[in-house]
Structure formats: C-alpha cells, structure tokens
Amino acid sequence: MNKKTVCSLLLAVFLSIWGTASVEALTEDERNNIQIYESLAPGVVNITSTVLERDFFFNVVPRRGAGSGSIIDSSGHILTNHHVIEDARKLEVTLANGKKYNAELKGSDPDTDLAVLKIDAPPKDLVVIPMGSSENLKVGQKAIAIGNPFGLGQTLTTGVISSIGRTLRATGGTLVEDIIQTDASINPGNSGGPLIDSSGKMIGINTAIFSPTGASVGIGFAIPVDTARRVIDELIEKGYYAYPWMGASFMTLTADFARALKIPVERGVMLVEVVRNGPAHRAGLRGGNARAQVGNHVLLVGGDIITKMNGKELMDADSAVREIRRHRPGDRVTVHVVHWDGGSSTLSLTLGERPRTGR
Amino acid sequence: MDTPFGKALCHHLLIIAACFMVWIGAHEAFALISEEENTIEVFEKVAPSVVNITTAPCDPEYFFCPLPSSSMSGSGIILRDDGTIVTNHHVVAEAENIEVALYDGHRFAASILATSPRHDIAILRIDAGAHPLIPIVLGDSDKLEVGGKVLAVGNPFGLGQTLTVGTVSMTGRDIRDGGRVLRNLIQTDASINPGNSGGALVNSRGELVGMNTAMLSPTGTSVGIGFAIPVNQVKKVAPGLIHGWVKWLGWILGSIVVYWALRRMRRPGTPS
Asked: Quick one: DSSP state of residue A242?
C-alpha cells in the first residue's frame, strides 16, 4: 500500500462519515415535513371573518372568527370551508407574509362545506398549493395539516390517514361522502386549511366541525380534494353548486316496515312527499297520502316505492341520494317503482336543479 | 496506465466514485417515505385481526328491559382462528347482546367465554363458520422502549376501523381506574378514545404489544395520554380464561389440602 492509496482511503472514509452525518442529522420523515412546510406554508392563508350579531339589548356586536384557506390558483382564488365564511359581513385574508387583503366571496356550498374566495394580490405573493387526488389514498399514509388553530397563527401538525371512505352526516343532516379521517390535530381555526400528502399535494380540506369536544381528540376530518375539484369551477362561475334534484322526499323502507305495511317488497325507498311540478311529480310518481303507525313511528304511507335506480338496487335513502348525486341536473334516470296496490313499472325522469334557499 | 501513480489515481477515483454513489443512493432512497410505507404495511397486516364490538347494555330503569337503550362500542383482537377474541372487561361488562363486526363488515353474535374484571380482560367467542379469521401475531411487551413507534387500531366513538399512530411515552405505568389498579401499563401518545378500548396496540413490525384500555383526560376524550395493557399480561391471563377449568384448579387443590388436614386431625394416636 502506498501513501496515495492510504490518503484516498482516508479521504473516502472521511467523506462517507461526513455524508452520512449530514443525512443522519434529521430523519427522512423530518426532512420531508420541513420541505413541505417551507414550500407550501406561504400558500396557506388566515381568514378572519366578521359576523354582526345582536346582543341582549339588540345592540349590534361584531364577532370575529378565524379560519384557514389555501390558495388554489395564481389569480387569487382561495378555497376554504363554508362554515368559516358563513354569515360573514367582512372577510379579511392574511397571507403568510403578513399582507392583508379584503376578500370577495365567489361562491359557497353548504352541502360539501366548501367555499371559494378571491383576493386581488399580485401573482408573486401567491403560492399555489397543488391539488393531488384523493382517489388512491391508503390508510397509514402521512397526512400534514397546515392551518391557523385557535387563531394562533400558522401551525403545522402531522399524522397519518386513519380511515378513508367514511360517510358522515354534517350538522344540518346533509351527507358528506368519502371523508378522510386523520390523527393529525385538527382544531377550530384549522378549518379550511389543506391536508397534504408526503409528495406535497393537497388531498383534503380540513374541517373541525365533527369533533366531539370542540377541540382535537386525534380524530380529525377532511373533505376529499376530489369533491372540491368537482364543485370549485361552478362555485367560481355561478356562486353555487347546482345539485341534481328529484323533487321528492323519501325514507328507507326496511324489511320490517314492508312486512308490517304488507307491501310486496324486501327493501326500497318510499316516497313521502312529492313536490308539485317537480321532476318526480311530472314523471307520475306519487307521494304518501295516509298515516300509519308502525311500532313507535308514525309514517306517511301510500307513496310509491322505488326499488331500483338505473338498474341498481336501492338499500336505503342514503344510497338513493348517492345515486342521484352521481348525475347532473338535466340527466335522465330510470327508476323501477312498486306501487301501493302491488303493480310495478319502470319509468324515466329528468333530474332538475335543486332549488336554493335564499342566501 | 501502468505506472504506480496511474494505479493509485485509478484507486483514488474509484473509491471516491463509490463513496459518491453510496451518498447519492442514500438520497435517492429518501425520496420514498419509508416511514409511510411501514405504517401502511403494518395497518394492512393488522387490520383483519381487529374487530369492532357493539354491545347493547340493558337499561335497568326500564320495565323488563323491552328495548336496548343505547348501543356502546369497543374493539377486540382476534387471538386464535377458532373465534377467540380478547377485549377489555369494561367493554362487555353489563352487555346484553354482543355483536362483533369483522374488518370486512361481516357480523357475528358473540358470547362471553370468561372475564377478569381485576385485569380488565375478557375473552369472547364467535362462531364464524367457514369464514376465515386471521389471528394477530403476539409480540413481547418487555422489549418495548420509550420512543418506539406504536400503532393503535380500533373503533373510536363507534366510527369504524381507525388507525392512529404515536410513540411509547412510558412503560410500567400503574393507574387507578375506578376501584381497581391496573399495573405495568404502556403509556402512548397515539390517540386513544372511547371505543378504542380492547383494540390493538402494535409495534412497527405489526406484532401485538398491548391492548388499548384507558386514557387520562379531563374531557373524556384523547389528549395524547392513552394506556394499554401490555401483551405479556394478556399472554399470562388469557389462557386461564380460555381454558375454564383452570379457575377450578385452586378450589381442587384447596379441597385436597383441607381433606388431607381433616384426615390427619381425625386419626387418633398418630404422633405428629
């Protein structure tokens, strides 16, 4: 062994130790978190909403709420939760660099709890959070939440995806589908902020409204980004998302009820009320016309029973809602109906647009 | 390049190149988040062995208990493929109808085989027929170290199967829970909520190290301080509960001793 070889060996050993030392200083997981925070945190904004309320003596009292939002394009559109901006008289957006802008509400959809705002900020201040897909998520995958919990200011919390594909009922009774559940801390104020995967793409919109105590218990929920993609364009364009509508209210007909009411069906969805001149009414469907008591429940009976929609068996009212939601207003759906007198027919109806309550 | 200098240079370059490649390689590997891969792998391995338990406790205030008042939920772990499930005693205490839901949604009625309130361990049995049951792999809770990764799988608030991840915060904790003292528990910061009780706490290899049991919290929900009964305790207690005759062993031995003592006392004239 000559001197040069020894030299090169020493150098090699030194280099490899130096190399591994710099790698080992932070674990890969830590570096991934830091990298995502540094690149995406400027794209998360704080939203301050001012709601005017009246106190006991009917004096107008402004109440301020805080939430989070993500910048979704370079023209200044911001995605957040509907409940963050609900009833707000004034919306103020603070970027991560501290600049404040008055925001304009472009549109909101209470059903999916999503809303889009717009600010007039120069494009250089706008860091866009790229949208990923919530289609192929796996339980156990890393989930990173960036937001403004309790109005504290920008905060990063990490966790894993705890479950996927869960359907929850929001306050108000609407179904929110395919919810992402995570153990990353989601607190009030995190609402509207992004849930990000390890590749730095948005996979969900955090929403704190389902927590049992009002604060994080390690069970946080996020609305999947695929749902957001579906509604965003229409929110920006029209200010609302048009839901398909059948013009009827219905209830699940379980096997027990069917037996008690002596209807020759196993399972289905019974129409309770049919809106006059609504799509269902025009197609000739009939709602309930008599009251009956089954056990402790008083039911409005006599309505048609839908057993199949587009060839699919309907298990319960939720599955009917889900099937209708797969379509757009104007689409035709075929329903298989069993009438109260025992006859059955297959007919098709054109879905309308769900009427919106004034806002 | 036949000169010694050329050879040395060659060596030199080769070794440096090799080093560089190792370094690059390390960086390349880090582009994938192995942490996530491990979590996903462990969940997929463990999930089929964790069940959701729904019980309908009887409300004693109602006349003859005509309706189950409200349902409560917990979790359980499949111990053996014959349908033996371990859970917490407090999950099935006062339970009237116990229903076990597997990971794939299949539901079975369960019966309580044995229960030990002192250890907060209960053994259930389901008859799954031909349905395959995947028992969990048991680990060794004595080898747990503070700071190690643990994963909790359970059914918090009856939501359905849920994964939460954290670390071992402390081992060997004694807590007072109601009237009893639970000893040697594992403390973790993985979120443990009501309904997680009886669920699995596994290590990063997917082996059972504990059974989630309790939490310390001012609100009754997770604040990041959860407790699990170590699996070694389960290993000690469960066989005695599964094989029911073991609990008569003490009585049998005791009666033999009493019988022997009585005979000695009765026999007159025997020098003692």
From this structure: P
Residue B114 to residues A99, A330, B242, Cα–Cα distance (Å): 65, 60, 7
List the CATH number of the domain containing A195.
2.40.10.10
Q: What is the mean pLDDT of chain A?
A: 85
Q: Is B125 in contact with B110 (CB distance < 8 Å)? A: yes
**Collapsing DSSP states into helix, strand and coil, what is residue A359?**
coil
Determine the structural domain holding residue B24 and report its residue range.
Answer: 4-42
> Known catalytic residue: B197?
yes
Q: Report which of residues B168 and A291 the model is more confident about.
A: B168
Of chain A, the end-to-end C-alpha distance in Å amounts to 86
Picking from B68, B70, B67, B122, the residue whose alpha carbon sits closest to that of residue B93 is B122
Q: What mean pLDDT do residues A143-172 have? A: 85
Evaluate whether residue A92 is within a structural domain.
no
**pLDDT above 90: residue A311:** no
Q: Is A8 on the interface with B (CB under 8 A)?
A: yes
Same domain flag for B222 and B146? yes
Report residue A107 as tokens: 């549109």
B176 in a domain, yes or no? yes
CATH code at position B67: 2.40.10.10
Interface of A with B in 211-250 (CB under 8 A): 212-213, 215, 217-219
pLDDT tens across A123-154, in order? 999 999 999 999 889 999 999 999 988 878 88
Residue A188: what pLDDT? Answer: 86
| Segments in chain B below pLDDT 50 | 1, 25-32, 60-69
Cα angle, residue B130 at apex, residues B128 and B133 outer, rounded to 5° = 60
Last residue within a domain, chosen from B126, B155, B171? B126
> In chain B, which residues have their Cβ closer than 8 Å to the Cβ of A218?
156, 164, 190-193, 222, 224
Q: What is the pLDDT of residues B83-106, one digit of tens each?
A: 999 999 999 988 878 999 998 888
Residues B73 and B158 both lie in one domain: no
Predicted pLDDT of residue B57 = 61
Which chain A residues contact residue B221 at CB under 8 A? Answer: 212-213, 217
Asked whether the predicted pLDDT for residue A357 surpasses 60, the reply is: yes
Look at residue B250 and tell me if it is in a domain.
no
Q: Which domain holds residue A327?
A: 244-353
pLDDT of residue A213: 74
Q: Which of B27, B39, B161 faces A163 most closely, judged by CB atoms?
A: B161
